[in-house]
């Protein structure tokens, strides 16, 4: 219940503000302890003087970062996955990040792993009984075999959850998009247009971009980290060579590649089907090709551009076909391309829609029952669990005692994801980035 009251300094008795206080008795508060909340006006002086007045009371101190959440964890109001969900919710920058983090904070991951653990314990019950009591238990061997098959099914289910294509990690950290292309094709102009600010230097001088310029974007509610790279070409400049190598390295870990080409430069080529061999080495059939500077194409040369574009696409198709060792009767996916004018901001909406489609496919959850795997820590525990189950199945016919120990290790690995199992060091890492008062 909220109560309107006047707030006074405990020693000077000076009135500081008029606001409300809310009393949350244990154990139903956020932390599970008695909690008093003060709702005061937001002026800097009011906040400063109120905090100073509270500090003058005996037994009070400023909370450490994340201390309220840590107390909630210590009092079993939240488990580790819910704490991590709250941390992700505080950091969420896009719609889908917020949605997944809120679901995790409310226990979606905790319930999933708890159910896996309970199913694993239930499936292993007859196995343990056979180990402990042997023939005296008069357990039907078929029942034990059924339990063993359930354990195999659970192991396969965990493996399927692990093989989620890193969708959860991508959603938490952002899908990696890399812009490549020859110098002066408009790569920097494109990232500036997408970022809606001057993130990268635009210059007619070739080789201006050397380092990777990264920008965090929200595309259709999905987080992406888009990077502008050095122009791909053979150069004698040592620094520019390093920039090209950095671009190659980033491409290897990219989820989406955007290759920007200057359509006017392509038309001016004496042999328009001869793209730079170095650039051809870096693109693949999944690359989205962006033909930029279409605003410079005159109506009298539009038919020439159409022929040039067709020639470029044919060259790309032939290159992909020859490098994937496909037979003539097997077709490769159609080349995905968009015409764009960064200077006129034409075609940008089409590009964003295409990116949104690709991101939606990337983040699509195929198993509606399984939450996204968002943290490496979860993956490591699940991997350990699967390895223990594999060893259990390997030993269960020959060494039942050793197999039993592996089974207990698998159950412990699942439990470590959500509960208090050697988590002191982990807690320091989780809570250090929380804000004061949370």
Fold and architecture overview:
The protein is α/β, with parallel strands linked by helices and 438 residues long. Helices cover 50% and strands 13% of the residues. The protein has a 6-stranded mixed β-sheet with strand order 5-6-4-7-8-9, with helices on both faces. Strands 1-2-3 form a 3-stranded antiparallel β-sheet. It is built from 16 helices and 9 strands. The mean pLDDT is 83.
What does the secondary structure layout of this molecule look like, with pairings?
Layout: E1 2-8, E2 15-24, E3 35-39, H1 44-55, H2 67-74, H3 80-91, H4 95-105, H5 108-133, H6 141-162, H7 167-173, E4 175-180, H8 187-195, E5 213-219, E6 222-228, H9 238-252, E7 256-262, H10 263-268, H11 277-280, E8 288-292, H12 302-323, E9 336-339, H13 348-363, H14 376-395, H15 400-418, H16 424-431
Parallel strand pairs: 4-6, 4-7, 7-8, 8-9
Antiparallel strand pairs: 1-2, 2-3, 5-6
């Amino acid at each position: 219940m909220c109560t309107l009251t006047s707030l006074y300094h405990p020693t000077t008795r000076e009135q500081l503000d008029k606001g409300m206080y809310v009393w949350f008795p244990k154990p139903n508060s956020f932390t599970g302890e008695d909690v008093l909340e003060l709702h005061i006006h937001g002026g800097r002086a009011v906040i400063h003087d109120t905090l100073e007045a509270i500090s003058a009371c005996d037994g009070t101190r400023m909370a450490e970062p994340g201390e309220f959440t840590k107390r909630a964890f210590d009092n079993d109001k939240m488990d580790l996955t819910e704490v991590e969900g709250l941390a992700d919710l505080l950091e969420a920058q896009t719609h889908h990040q917020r949605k997944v983090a809120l679901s995790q904070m409310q226990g979606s991951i905790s319930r999933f792993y708890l159910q896996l653990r309970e199913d694993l314990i239930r499936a292993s019950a007859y196995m343990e009984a056979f180990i402990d009591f042997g023939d005296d238990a008069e357990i039907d061997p078929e029942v034990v075999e059924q339990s063993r098959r359930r354990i195999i099914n659970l192991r396969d289910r965990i493996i399927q959850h692990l093989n989620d294509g890193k969708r959860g990690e991508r959603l938490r950290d952002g899908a990696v998009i890399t812009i490549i292309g020859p110098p002066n094709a408009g790569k920097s102009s494109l990232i500036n247009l997408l970022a809606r600010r001057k993130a990268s230097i635009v210059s007619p001088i070739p080789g201006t971009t050397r380092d990777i310029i990264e920008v965090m974007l929200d595309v259709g509610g999905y987080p992406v980290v888009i990077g502008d790279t050095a122009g791909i070409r053979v150069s004698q400049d040592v620094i520019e060579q390093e920039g090209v190598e950095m671009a190659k390295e980033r491409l290897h870990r990219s989820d989406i590649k955007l290759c920007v080409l200057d359509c006017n430069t392509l038309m001016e080529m004496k042999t328009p089907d001869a793209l730079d061999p170095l650039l051809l080495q870096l693109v693949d059939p999944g690359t989205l090709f962006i033909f930029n500077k279409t605003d410079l194409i005159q109506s009298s040369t539009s038919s020439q551009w159409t022929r040039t574009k067709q020639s470029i696409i044919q060259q790309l198709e032939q290159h992909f076909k020859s490098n994937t060792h496909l037979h003539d009767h097997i077709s490769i996916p159609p080349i995905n391309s968009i015409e764009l004018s960064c200077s006129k901001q034409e075609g940008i909406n089409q590009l964003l829609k295409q990116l949104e489609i690709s991101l939606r496919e990337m983040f699509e959850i195929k198993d509606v029952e399984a939450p996204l795997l968002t943290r490496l820590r979860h993956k490591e525990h699940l991997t350990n669990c699967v390895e223990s189950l594999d060893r259990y199945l390997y030993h269960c016919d020959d060494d039942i005692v050793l197999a039993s120990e592996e089974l207990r290790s698998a159950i412990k690995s699942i439990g470590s994801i959500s509960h208090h199992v050697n988590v002191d060091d982990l807690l320091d890492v989780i809570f250090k980035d929380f804000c004061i008062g949370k």
